[in-house]
Amino acid sequence: MLLSLTLFLWRLYRHFSIMFSSERLTVPEYVSRLQRGRSGSGSEPKAVSPGVRADVQLVLDGALPALRCAIQRLKSSHETSDSDETRRAIAELFQLVEEAWVLPTVGRQVAEDICNRIRLDGGLELLLQLQQNPALEITYESAKLLEQILTSENRDYVARMGLGVVLNLTRHQEDAQLARSVSGILEHMFKHTEETSVHLISNGALDALLFWCRGTDPTVLRHCAVALANCAMYGGHRCQRWMIEKQAAEWLFPLAFSKEDEIIRFHACLAVTVLAANREIEKEVVKSGTLELVEPFIASLDPDDFARSLLDSSDNMQGRTAADLQHFLPLLDGTRLEGKCIAAFYLCVEASIKSRQGNTKIFQEIGAVQSLKKMVMYSSNGTACGLAKRALSVMGEEVPRRILSCVPNWKTCEVRTWLQQVGFSAYCDRFQELQVDGDLLLNITDQELCHDLGMTAGLSRKRFLRDLCVLKTYANYSTCDPNNMADWLVEVDPRFRQYTYGLVQSGVDRNNFKSLTDQQLQNDCHIDNGVHRAKILSANNKPLKPCQTDAQPAGPDVFISYRRTTGSQLASLLKVHLQVRGYSVFIDVEKLEAGKFEDKLIQSVQRARNFILVLSSNALDKCMGDTDMKDWVHKVGSFQFFCIV
Length: 645
Hints:
By secondary structure, the protein is an all-alpha fold. The chain has helices at about 1-15, 30-40, 55-80, 85-100, 105-120, 125-130, 135-150, 150-160, 165-170, 175-190, 195-200, 205-210, 220-235, 235-245, 250-255, 260-275, 280-290, 295-300, 305-310, 320-325, 330, 335-355, 360-365, 370-380, 380-395, 410-420, 430-435, 440-445, 445-450, 460-475, 485-490, 500-505, 520-525, 530-540, 570-580, 600-605, 630-640, and strands at about 560, 585, 610-615. The protein starts with a helix and ends in a 7-residue tail after the last helix. It is an enzyme of class 3 (hydrolase). Keywords: Cytoplasm, Hydrolase, Immunity, Innate immunity, NAD, Repeat, Signal.
């Protein structure tokens, strides 16, 4: 036992001592022996199993005998009710799995094979039985191992055979040690299927996660943040609606507002961004206030530093699979800036991880490269555009030039540049010959493409018109749209911005818009989609929003401020507790320095009916001896605004 502990501590020391050296990661002793043998031992190579890489098979040959032995010991000790031997067998299995996950390059394949062997040899079934063991230590340790082995196939097994066991564990919400593992198990199970997520939420799993969001344990909070992100990404619209009903967007605020763990903040931001991409619940998500934290947070991160933090975690160091990464594409191609920023950032991070593994071709296979190129070409947001450029560079892809947004004013040379960047270089000369400028490009039809420009292939014309639709959506119409019809169309549906030029060219403005007919929208404004015309006419018949006046808008019920970062978590939790009870709350997100706050902040306090100041340790140091009341707390406290402090 002492020898085993000494060996484990030595391995742990080695792991951290060379984390950033050329060796990068400590590898298990059996792998080191195999690598030494491979490099110069002269031993005969063994046969490789079909579909398994030679280097993966080499590691498995060293690991599987110990794995089988540990599983057999676990079975025997369970039959004889030997608790000590059961715990030793679980610990040995955990060490084998943990060492596999941190292997460089081949870690994912080796770990997944080991985890699947545990299931095939009956170990997973036994672990589920041990969750119901009266000995708490065995429950804790078997749950910890279960969390580590939930590969795709093992999630299938648990969903079919052990979901009730997992749900029983979630009912012990007050058990802090068990929460560390159960929250991790839920993190994996919310990736399984929509049906599994529905079953989990229906039986209290989401309630447990939201309860744990109120705690301070960073391990539990990290699992909760990732689990909520997985629930939003993989659970479908039904689960997203339930998340809103259970006020998950509000409870994500303390996680996204956290100052201590960037991985927690990132996944909380990812969860709320995915929820906001669902237009049915978008307004409720925006109302929570959590979405406002996303873009500034992403802009503050460095993708390489974030990738290193993932590589230092055995849970994340292998990166995501192709199937996982595909779930980021709807955000990348969506209409919300927060979604574009967070998706571009994460693809940049994954590109860094995959480049170390020599697997950057995965991004071309899932279609991410084209989406990133479109973002570089069209996006006016510096954060999103910069991240997309960086991701493409790390992937080894060509970075396109940004397209000038004032498309109606384009000359023929700008049309030519756009054609080259969207893959229609073969038609550049014909477009040039016919002097196609920005105005003609925005008005071009399928028939003109075929007969005038020689684009005879129907699929080529469809692809061209699809790219043209994207261009119309991103174009800047300010020079020809004095009534800002573009923004009104976006309020109806962000996709409808493509119809701006047709409306403006037909003489439509805010004054005559209400008299438009379906026939006019089709024939004069060239909106061929009947459903789109119906939506526009329906929105047109709604009463206009009241105009903004100089009168100040009603203030929040509560203004919350905090003096030090140590008070940020309490401030954010207060915000959520008040919001879920129906109060409107403003929290000062930016750190305030004495005497340097903006007038609008004072105005916010003035309009608020209640002012809450979170005082953590030493928070009032600057007020000591401040007889002139220059510190902002003294100034706020001296206001006669009938504000309850």
